Amino acid sequence: MRRLVAALPLMWLGLFFLVPFLVLLRISVSEPAIAQPPYLPLFEWADGLLTMTLNLGNYIFLAEDPLYLFSYLSSLKIAAVSTLIALLLGYPMAYAIARAPTGRRNLLLMLVILPFWTSFLLRVYAWIGLLKANGLVNNVLLWLGVIDQPLVILQTDFAVYLGIVYTYLPFMILPLYATLSKMDGDLLEAAADLGARPAVTFLTVTLPLSMPGVLAGSMLVFIPAVGEYVIPALLGGPGTLMIGSVLWNEFFLNRDWPVAAAVAIVMVLVLALPITLLRRIQAQEES
Amino acid sequence: MLRAITLLGFAFLYAPILSLVIYSFNESRLVTVWSGFSTRWYAELLQDDQILGAAWISIKVATLSATLATVLGTLAALALIRHGRFRGRPALGGLVTAPLVMPEVIIGLSLLLLFVAMDNLIGWPAGRGVLTIVIAHATFGTAFATVVVQARMVSLDRALEDAAQDLGAHPLRVFFDITLPGLAPALISAWLLAFTLSLDDVVIASFVAGPGASTLPMVIFSKVRLGVSPEVNALATLMIATVSILVLAASFRSWRR
């Protein structure tokens, strides 16, 4: 009985989350074939022996074609810049919410969480209407006389940054809020009593104490952003290189499953470091 | 300064949603040119069989997967919070947090490869469709449900359960009479969260759906890739209205307590 409680979720997640990674790993070293499914059989019986051919060709292919390297680097750059912008916008918001009186604090927190409950796809889609050449943003800017030609915003990297920051901002704010609201107000008062200016207090007391929130929030934005597919597909242009889109195209357009699997494995390796960092922060927070 | 940034931040979060709602009542097909109030896109939406059919599939998938995820998530939370140290604990702890941050393209591709390999090996799941989407959604839903239920379980008073057990109640009875009612608000949140996430997922579903079944987000995605569509705005408004009413009602109830 007691065993079953842990065993059921363990078995489910093992079978449908862990085992798929092993399959992914296996297929990333198999040979592509024009077949259904499009790779050579994973195991073969020959002379009563079960043999498994490993083929590193897909990884060599990834290393030789600069498209892949550029896509990984560009994804990391786009994710890092978006994370930084989300931090610069999210930190003051989390700070203001943590300092707000209790009644208003709950309302503001709900306002941060509410967009998370509404469709992510539709919220990203909303930006198409805002950003396109005859969209709301351009119309307002034209009307204000700031510009006399509509700006090209949609289908640029800028629109992708905007979309990522917009989508993941709540993930940045919530962990920041969690650390900032737990902070001991006496420390700030003590610093002020001892003559520290607000800026100094912030840099020497508040910011260092909120570092777990900064790191957790940043990782929660950065990790999914690296593999993002929908945002570059809807808001990015032909020049926007992101590894999530490369994987998608390898799979759906080129139907090269083994190469898509290799792209995914390399992505997991790239993300292993930030994921470990996040887990470590979360474990520390728990204890 | 702080106030200005906060206001700007909230405007940034809500302006796009607001624009969707406003333009859903626009007469013109050109979504951004206002030409008068009209509800014609709602009427067209209700006659669009492709969208309605996909919506029905999505609701089925979301209901089934959210229910599975809530059950599995509750069991996982129970094991993690109440069972102390046991052999599978580190593995379970890792497995419930990993799907939370793993990029969707990786989850989708790896699950699809598993389904294809299993189909070849043991003939199950035969082909791909609603069943495979339900399994996929239940898997990442479990991770989110565990987090929600765990948070509530930590704050639950154990003394009540201990008392019931001391008075001779069977562990199952303790669970159903004491633990479960105490967890009820979290179970509802967990179910709703898993339901919403399932109803919203386009990437994982696209990988595991196969040609037969298209969920609502898949249909929306293929429509909006071709540009803005007033019908999608109307659909978005209906979905946003439903969610807002539910969330407002839920928080109003918790405030009154």
TrEMBL record, chain A:
Transmembrane segments: 69-95, 107-130, 161-180, 200-222, 229-248, 260-278
Source superkingdom: Bacteria
Keywords assigned by UniProt, alphabetized: Cell membrane, Membrane, Transmembrane, Transmembrane helix, Transport
Topological type in the membrane: Multi-pass membrane protein
Domain (ABC transmembrane type-1): residue spans on this chain: 72-278
Localization per record: Cell membrane
Family annotation (PROSITE patterns): ABC_TM1 (PS50928)
GO biological process assignments: transmembrane transport
Keyword Transcription regulation: no
One cellular component (GO) term of this entry: plasma membrane
Family statement drawn from the similarity comment of this UniProt entry: Belongs to the binding-protein-dependent transport system permease family. CysTW subfamily.
Protein name, as recorded: Putrescine transport system permease protein PotH
Native source organism of the sequence: Palleronia abyssalis
Automatic annotation (TrEMBL), chain B:
Annotated source species: Palleronia abyssalis
Statement: the UniProt record of this protein carries the keyword Membrane: yes
Keyword Transmembrane helix: yes
Entry membrane topology: Multi-pass membrane protein
Protein's name in the database: Inner membrane ABC transporter permease protein YdcV
CDD domains found in the cross-reference section: TM_PBP2
Keywords: Cell membrane, Membrane, Transmembrane, Transmembrane helix, Transport
Residues that span the membrane, as ranges: 7-25, 54-80, 92-118, 130-153, 174-196, 202-220, 232-252
Protein family (similarity comment): Belongs to the binding-protein-dependent transport system permease family. CysTW subfamily.
Stretches assigned to the ABC transmembrane type-1 domain: 55-250
